[in-house]
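Known limitations

Files may contain more than one protein. Parsers should not assume a single record per file. Below, a two-record file is shown to illustrate correct handling: read the sequence, read the token line, then continue until end of file.
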Amino acid sequence: MCRLAAITSSEYFSPIENILALETMKEGHDGSGLGLTLKNLGGEFKELKKYPILSGICSRKGKEILDDYMKQLGFKLIHEWMPKIKPVRGIIRRDYYFARVYDYPEDWKNKSDREKEDFLMNTRITLRKMGEADESIFVFSFYPDIVTLKEVGDPLELAEFFGLDKDNLEAKIIFAQGRQNTNYQIYLYACHPFFIQGYCTMTNGENTAFVPIREFLMSRGFPGYMGYNSDSEVFCHILHYSARQLGFPLTYYKDIITPLKWEEIEQRPDREALSLLKMSLRPLCIDGPNMVIGFTPDGTCFMVQDAKKLRPGVVGGVKGKYALMSELCGLDKVIPERDRLKDIYPMKYDMVIVSPGAKEVKVWNQLPA
């Protein structure tokens, strides 16, 4: 199993908060890796929100390839963040860890946001393919106001390795996963969180319906539905497909991955739409024990469970700061001063939704009251 620590706040905070929460949940992960995704950035990125940020790792050879390709496309590098590495025993240092801020090529500056998103995604995919065979380039995200950092090792040791306790890297939404990889080899592209065009998820569990879901998504003809080094990456792509590509409201994501029985659908006022949803998107129904945490482009955060509620999850906090955690001890670490009676443990029909800016939390239920 994995352990997940997500925090959404009205104020900027450091990813060290997430990592310390992971440390309290360490019995649930083996320290095989850390993945971080930061949204709504502060610090040195605060005034650069309109520019896309390329996050990744590369070798010296990969850096030359990356620089040449970005120059060829017309991207102009305007800022670069690189962690101040401190050697830590057992962690193998790679040549370059980076979050690079670029200005768009001149002929792309006046394109629509949707066109820009596709351009950035296709650029990321091309760079990934260029460096994947020899692992000279890893790219995890290329999107405005998003930074992603991943590496193999114990989360707390990696925080020291990257100097996160002393760096000014901060954000208002941060997702972190401490990873125990039970189904695949240790590989950076298999490490959560997963991100595509403003949508992000991370998962504790396993998805035994992975193959039919993957085949359905890949049949959509969308170039971003690729990779799949982890059976959990499809959760992010289902979210993207339902919300961005089909334009459905966020709550339909829950209806798609854990569809109601036909007799339960009859109780819903939108039963006709829901029936069509169930029939047409049946291949996206998940199977196996899962708890999923995600965010959308507007900063909404959520938690959902599989239909059998076979993985733990809890949401709690105070107005202006909420945490979505695998375990209660992680929530206690991050927000100890909250009213514990208001903690939410979502069940099989629930979707816990935290509004942008961490203003409020609500529970949406698939069954009408």
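...continuing to the second record:
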Amino acid sequence: METRPFSLTFGSEGRHLRIETLTRLRWLAIFGQLATVLFVAHGLQFSAPVALCLAVIATSAVLNVLVEIFVPKNLRLEEQPATALLAFDVLQLSALLYLAGGIENPFAILLLAPVTIAAVSLRSSQILIIAALVVLSASFLTAFHWPLPWYRTETFELAPLYRLALWSALLVATTFICLYAARVAGEKRDLQLALSTAEIVLERQNHLSRLDGLAAAAAHELGTPLATIALVSRELSKAKLPAEFSEDIELLTQEAQRCRAILGQLSSLADERQPPLDHIRLRHLLENIAAPFRQYPVEIEISLQGEGDEPIVLNDAALTYGVGNFFENAVDFAKEKVLLSATWTSKDVTIDIRDDGPGFPNEILNQIGEPYLRARAARRLKSENSAGLGLGIFISKTLLERTGAAMRFSNLDSGGASVQMIWNRTRLENRTGAADRS
């Protein structure tokens, strides 16, 4: 029988925290609290309100038991239920500290644990709620609390100024954790999403490229049975058959010829565009990239110059999409001209894309290629998937770096932007395989 969530509205589409993660952490806290209270009371023989402390610990244990009974372990929480559970942990620990010395208790530092979990898992608004609750609890515990458990014949109390210093330290630590942990976790999530998007884009490009090869292969395989059908239909047309079959045989012959014409067009795809696993000369790669933009009102110039034989590269989606996306950006921002040049030596192969547009904003020049780049500059990094956030640039940069390219972004003295992609020639040609240069 399937159990249903109780009380709180747990979400089946939660973004981050699994309920099992919080449950296990709470069990760890419960056993730690229980061991500490018993050790202080019986091991050290300190005077402590053991019964009340155990009652507070029991509330946390009861919640954990109810969650494990009624809530699926693999459930991921929505923002509000996760915030509610973390808030409960803050209040439960605060109640325990209230009975055991307040801010003077060394274990008051554990108030930072729920803040840390919230900072790496929740949105900014929920993080602020947990942080504010921790600050309020620490402020209350600084002013109001029962005495710190100590030897029965002695009393222990810190000076008010020192208690204020402890409160200040806790406040600073809470602020630092919220800012730092939330920033790091946010960047990690953006990076993971951007990498996932890059994989999807590359897979789509590979799928489209494979269609040409598949079409050519299908045309080749279907050619033989179609030729047989055409031969049989011609023989039937020469035979003396009843008149009612003549029109059908003539129609069969026409349709066979039509099929042969269609298969011929499919076969020509292999000649018009190289199959994805074929190797092509560098000039052909650049021409394929520039071809879709020839109708744009921008002059496109392709330049090739180098030492020795022209490099032969793999005509794969990563290389084509990566260079093509940077070239598309150059065309979008160019005023009159875009230069797509390739140079090579015995050691390196370099592709340089230059335009005469406004160039990259100086404030983001060192950040280009980061996922979800946000800039208020006039030049927006546009691409099909970036929506102005730089994701398209990140995808292209990532794909090219996987082929061994080193990326350089700069502004030209004469105006405009330059994107250089530099490969080690030996590594690039080893990657593409030993292609025949004849």
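Parsers that stop after the first record will miss the second one. For reference, the second record is described as follows. The CA atoms of residues 112 and 173 lie 8 Å apart.
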